[in-house]
Design brief:
Elements lengths: L1 E5 L16 H11 L4 E5 L2 H10 L4 E5 L2 E3 L1 H8 L6 E6 L8 E5 L2 E6 L13 E9 L4 H13 L13 H10 L5 E5 L5 E3 L3 H12 L3 H8 L7 H6 L4 H10 L4 H21 L2 H28 L4 H28 L5 H31 L11 H14 L4 H9 L3 H14 L2 H30 L9 H4 L4 H13 L5 H19 L5 H15 L17 H19 L4 H24 L12 H15 L1 H26 L48
Parallel strand pairs: 1-2, 1-3, 5-9
Antiparallel strand pairs: 3-8, 4-10, 5-8, 6-7, 6-8
Helix pairs in contact: 2-4, 4-5, 9-11, 10-11, 10-12, 11-16, 12-13, 12-17, 12-23, 13-17, 13-22, 13-23, 14-17, 16-17, 20-21, 20-22, 21-22, 21-24, 22-23, 22-24, 23-25, 24-25
Length: 693
Amino acid sequence: MLAILLTPTQPGPPLTLPDGKPLAARLREQLRAAGARDVVLTDDPNRLAALAETAREPVLLCSGDLVAHTAVLRHLATSPLPGTAALVLPERDAGPLGVLEERGQVVGTDHSGAAGTSGLTSTGAFGGAVRLAVADLPALVTAARAAATAPPAGIGTATATSAPDRLFTALTGSGITIFASRVRLLVARRVTDPAGVAAAEAAVAAVDSDRAELRLSVKEKDDFFTTYFVSTWSPWVTKLSARLRLTPTGVTAISVLVTAVAAALFALGGRPALVTGAILLYLGFMLDCVDGQLARYTRHFSPWGGWLDTIADRAKEYLVYAGLAVGVERAGLGNGWALAIAAITLQTVRHMTDTWYGALHDEAAKRPRPAGPAAGGLGDRLSAASNKVQADTGSVSYWLKRTVVFPIGERWALIALTVALFNPLVSLVAVLVWGGFAAAYTLALRTLRARSMRVPVLTGVDTLLHRDDGPAARWLAGLGRAAGLPGPLPMALFGAAASAVLLGAGLAGLGGTTARWSVPLAVLVVLLAALPAGVPHGRPLDWLVPAALRAAEYLLVIAVGLAVDAPGWMTFALLFVLALRHYDLTSRLEKRERAPLLRQLGLGWDGRLIVLGVAVLLGPGAARIAMPLLTGYLGVIFAVNALRGWVRRDIPAPRRPADAQPDGGAPLAAAGARTDRAGERGEPAGKRGEGDG
């Protein structure tokens, strides 16, 4: 990473520290400690433009009037947030340039303190530092060249007066996405005179950087169970893990092992085994939090780590469902696999809506609000009410809002309590009841709010990839594009409805010859959802299309299992590998990663349904053979993509010499690769988690 230090151009002598050392010299040391391979000092916009134009790495731009803990700059430099990130001070009057934030993105700037064009008031101040992604460097070149020809802004105008603030104002207006890296617990201040430098230095010295970083490793806004029953003591486990030089990936592996033992105990049954399994499930979730906290504490991040965290979380949860299903069957309490199949389907489809609604909401944050009849509607009023509740941190309404959506901490707590006090059947039923209510609640509110956003969010991504379309669907999409079909949502919902009808017939006991012909017919009907795949997914509710396709495929898989009398575990196993494949795709969307290496070999949802339809047409025996073969085939492809498709691109945590700490902190242990989970523990690409939006 290249760091560019913009030296102040105000009249008078250079800013100096109380010991007489120039502030610029100390900032240069801090930028190197934050991970910069080189630090260039300049006050010339033309040179800045030339440096940015030739750079082939991220650029850390820093104002020469910043007094801060070294950790503040290190956190900005190593932030797992994708793209460009800016340092944001919590108080509006902490700097000359206010920032307007929504959903973790800087959507505008404000020099006067009045409401900005987006209708928001300042939520903080620009901290004088911004880390620019390589893809966004052309915007910096343009801004620097404009600054070189523009006269300095006068005091009292609506434009920031210092060069860094003018540059940042230009960047926010360039259309690039800028995430906010907020200062919490640590100290960062913009200074203008010796008195300000001395006051800021005193504030820095008063805060123990290492203790603050340990507290910062805990997610700022988490769910009720995690906040009060895990995060109150998990930082001490995080500190111990760092001292033992465990990696976040190693902690994830331990969490998987502990959770797998818990699932095995749930399958074994008996009160001692169930209680022990519940305790291990709680400990597994605690370790699930520690791996992310350890990554934040040691500042080691990578797309590989974020992907591994997401996949491991889902695999562990669905493994627990399988263990509960076996426990139900062994205890003679009913059809446990049917409940587990329903749970995995419900939760996966819910997560698909989480991802795409998060993308919609993030994009809407950057767009002007609609005027005219759309403004002030029900969706806008719901948004305002939701934002008000979210701002009232710690209130009863705040915790109710976060709990009713049934996040992962609450899911695992419910499973642990019900299985310890009752039995696996009660656990699975409770998960389905609360999960179904949460799905209905979030879907209703999000639908109302999305209609008021009017943002064509899916027009900027490869929808054919993230829909998981295969060759047949892409061919049909060409036909649909030529026919001028309308939006894709109606046909996707129609396909899901067709699968639901077939499943209903299977539950009603219609099998044999009827199933042999009804399943292929249902497959043909569901394939119609591919016709509008090439149409822009830009309507208010088109974020529901990927989830509708997942529902159509999963319901049809279940219907096939019923039609050919396949064992429940066989159907569950196929759904399990399908879910892992689809979480891989959502991770790529959230982390802006390329398509899987073996994308075409995955057949697509259309190809997989065609395989199952042909197998049923050949007879129940052929279908019972095709299902495990398809499961194994997709599992191998997933494993190859996991090993080769997610290249380790770790962001190394800078080592701080113990005898040369600018802010007095202790050196951190090295750790492995990890990024915050997109969804449940961290939001590197905006909120993709479980909530009502």
